[in-house]
Each structure stands twice: as C-alpha cells, then as structure tokens.
Amino acid sequence: MRIPLNDVKAQYTPLLGELRDRFADVLDSGRFILGPNVKAFEEEAAAYLGVSKTVGVANGTDALVLVLDALGIGPGDEVICPAFTFYATAEAIARRGATPVFADIDPVSLNLDPRDTAERITARTRAIMPVHLFGRPAPLRELSELGVPIIEDAAQAFGAPGVATTGVASTFSFYPTKNLFGLGDGGLVAATDDDVAERVRMLRFHGSRDKVDFHFVGYNSRLDELQAAALRVFLPHVASWNTARREAAGRYEELGLSDVCELPVDDEGHVYHMYVVRTPERDQLAAALDEAGIANASYYVTPLHLQPALRFLGYGEGSLPETERAARENLALPMWPGIAPEAQEDIVTTVRQAAGVHAAR
Ligand SMILES: Cc1ncc(COP(=O)(O)O)c(C=O)c1O
C-alpha cells in the first residue's frame, strides 16, 4: 500500500537513540520482570491520567479480566457493554463466567447509548463497561447516573480528557497501534479505588504480594520491564501525538471529506485512535481506496452479538439496529500523528472521485 492505515514506525524512529539507551540499561541490570521501570511507569502513568494507582499487566484483555475478577464478578452476574467494539471487551466478561449484555450504540458517537443501557439494567447487573471507541470518550456522566459501577475499556483512548476518572477501574492496551503503544503486548489498569488496585496487583502475580503467601487463585500477567522502559520513552510524547491526530482530523474536514461521507463529530476529547467515517456506499469507497493503494479498514463488520462464539447469548440479526448499521457503514481512513497533508489530499481526492465529486477542495 502506498499510504498505510497507520505508521507506528514513523512515530518511534525519532526516538530510537533513547530507546536503545533505556534497553541497554535494562540489559545491564539483568532485571526483566517487575523491576524499576514497571514501578516508575506505573507512577508516571498514574500522574498523567490523574488517578491514584495504576498496575501494569500483560495486555489490555487481561486488564479487563483482572478488573472483573478483582470486583468479584463471575457466574450469575451481568455486565452491560457495546457490541460495536473489539471482541476482547465481551470476551473478558464471558471468560469470567459472567454474562455480557449488549446495549445499542448512539449513531453519532458510536459509543454506548445511555438510554438503551438504562433499559438493560436488571437485578443481576454488576457493572457497565463502556468503550471509548476509536478514541472518543464515552458518555461517562450519563452512564454513571445510572447508579451501576463503571469499568472503562479505555484501550483506544490513552490521554483523552476525562478518561479513567469515572470508572472504579479503567483498562488500557499498549498494542502497537494504540495512542500510547509498546513494542509488543502490554496493558494497564488504572484505578480510582486503592483496594481494587491492590487486588489487581496481587492477581497479576498469582494472587501473591511476596511469592511466599498466595491469597487468591490468580494469573501470571505482568508488564515486562523492557516494555515499561519503552513506554516511559513514549509517555512524554503522547499529548503531542494526540494533538497531531486532532490536527490531522481537522485537515480531513477542511479538505472537503464531509461532502461525500459522514465525518466523526469533533468532540473536544476525541483523540482519534482511528479516523472513522461512515457512508452507505462504504464498499464502493473502500474498493476505490484499495485500487489507489490507500489502506483502509472496516471495523467490527460482524458485531459481537452476532459472533459465533457468543451465539449462545441469543441475540439475533436486527436486535441492535444502530450497531448493525455502523458495522455496515464504517470506514477507517489513514490516521497517525505526522501523516503528511499531501497524503491526506490524495485520500480525500480519491474518496471524492469515487463518490462522483472531483478533487480535494
Ligand atoms: C476496545 C478494546 N478492548 C480491549 C482490547 C484488548 O487489548 P489487547 O490487544 O492488548 O489485549 C483492545 C485492543 O486490541 C481494544 O481495542
């Protein structure tokens, strides 16, 4: 592809010297598990996010499972989440033996619809798990008014304003395309409740504090020292990366993309993990972009309530209409901090031509 969907290498290449120095320090120390970099990163991330504690874990999926476990959520419990999200959101709930309950999304924000969420609350509901989808903060204030604990799946929204401040715990993924990324798998739990943080800290290490006494049946799910070293290099850049993403989103709008498809509404807090437009002519536009060598992607085309592994939950086609429409219409265009304005012009011209409107504005 002439223009990729994202370019993580372009983000870390200017930092290679610093990365090599930090990795050399880890190699010299001979400490690879739960060493000083993990501890320092947890403190730096907590300060950045404005939470009291964070706990580094192996990936964003484990972060969700560990939070659910720490809250004692399991068989017989229900957790409300969207079906227009990555599979891991609901998988974590099912992995704990609890029941994912899907609420529909708001068609503009693509995030959980608080009204539909309210209607799905039962006596068994233990938590609501909104996802800050594509980097746009979910409506935390409205959701928290429903009186059920919130667990924020913030995998796609590191650094978005307000994220991680409402939930009893929030989870992040450092998969290498995320707003804050590692050089491999990694994850983080951010907690506003110190007891939850402490329990997650023990669960990530077999339910133990000291490798002597084991208090719970836990997991082995630790953030690696080398990943933490890289994350400490990247963390000071995430704010300017998020600003650059917002500028690139503004440029798409200026270039006239809104003449031919529905653009993501530019909420102040949106950090554009992905730049996702929507149009009923999605497949036609995707084919034109493919032909022009411009990478693009359609997310969650089979939403979670229709996934084979979750069929046992009993949702049929048509049960979540806005989710299913978003699955048919969404199209992600190239987005990363530092995407060239000329590349964006090419992309908009290609999309406008495919829709029968000529050239970028
Ligand atoms: C919304 C969401 N939740 C959870 C995850 C799981 O994160 P990981 O891939 O680090 O396990 C991801 C990421 O890939 C995600 O996008």
Characterise the protein shown here.
With 361 residues, this protein is an alpha/beta fold. Helices cover 37% and strands 11% of the residues. α2 runs antiparallel to α9, α3 packs parallel to α9 (225-234) and α4 (60-70) packs parallel to α5 (88-95). The mean pLDDT is 97. The structure holds pyridoxal-5'-phosphate. Pyridoxal-5'-phosphate (PLP) is lined by residues 59-61, 85-86, 88-89, 131, 153, 155-156, 173, 175, 185, 187.
Give the amount of beta strand, in percent: 5-15%
CATH H-level superfamily of the largest domain: Type I PLP-dependent aspartate aminotransferase-like (Major domain)
pLDDT below 50 for ≥5 consecutive residues: which ranges?
Answer: none
- The CATH architecture of the largest domain would be 3-Layer(aba) Sandwich
Strand order of the largest sheet: 1-7-6-5
- What is the structural class? alpha/beta
Query: What is the overall number of helices?
Result: 13
In CATH, the topology of the largest domain is named Aspartate Aminotransferase, domain 2
Heterogens:
pyridoxal-5'-phosphate
Mean pLDDT level: 97
- CATH class placement of the largest domain: Alpha Beta
Report the order of strands and helices.
Answer: HHHEHEHEHEHEEEHHHEHHEH
- Give me the count of strands: 9
Number of structurally distinct domains = 2
Terminal-residue CA separation: 24 Å
Helix content: 25-40%
Please compute the radius of gyration using only Cα atoms.
Answer: 21 Å
**Basic shape:** globular
